[in-house]
Amino acid sequence: MTWFTRIRPLARLALQFAILGLLIAAFFLRTPQVFGPSMEPRIVSGEYVVINTIAYRLGTPQRGDVVAFSHDGDPPETYIKRIIGIAGDHIRIDRGAVVLNGTRVVEPYVAYADSRSFPETTVPPNSVFVLGDNRLNSEDSRVFGSVAVERLMGKALVGLWPLGAIGEL
Fold it and tell me: Which residues have C-beta within 8 Å of that of residue 146, sequence separation ≥ 6?
């Protein structure tokens, strides 16, 4: 038996896994480029992010998830923001501090806080309340209201490019 006949089954299996991986990536992952500073410092303008497009077909959005969603505009855009509240939650912002269901939220991911307030709102059924991590430079639910779950394209998983941005969100 030659070395080729010994590794041939392994090579075939590796090829099958590679093809399966490419099919999964083609149908269930997206890699949009982020424009704008609203998620800095973790996600910077120009960075590519991997989006799991089946996450919310199989599960439900959770507080803290970083999500991509379609936003009506001219032209329509894909926004990436962090979920702060889910359906039924009561949210207000007091001088920059997010209060969720009566409890102040600790947000270690917010490096650029602001001192603006936002009146209490209740997140409607089948919706989420989203904010950018860079509160000073973010168009989010404070501007356009809650986002319908059906508009969520998926959950942002990792920064992909540039190489220095690789890592979990």
Answer: 85, 121, 123, 124, 127, 128, 129
Q: How many structural domains compose the chain?
A: 2
Rg over CA atoms, the chain = 20
User: Could you write out the DSSP letters of every residue in 16-37?
Assistant: HHHHHHHHHHHHHEE-PBP-SS
Q: Which of 16-30, 43-57, 124-138 has the highest mean pLDDT?
A: 124-138
Whole-number Å distance between alpha carbons of 20 and 127 = 33
Task: Give the residue numbers marked as catalytic.
Answer: 38, 81
The verdict on 66 and 81 lying in the same domain is yes
pLDDT, tens only, 25-83? 556 666 666 677 787 777 777 788 888 878 788 889 999 999 988 877 667 778 889 99
Q: Both 77 and 24 in a single domain?
A: no
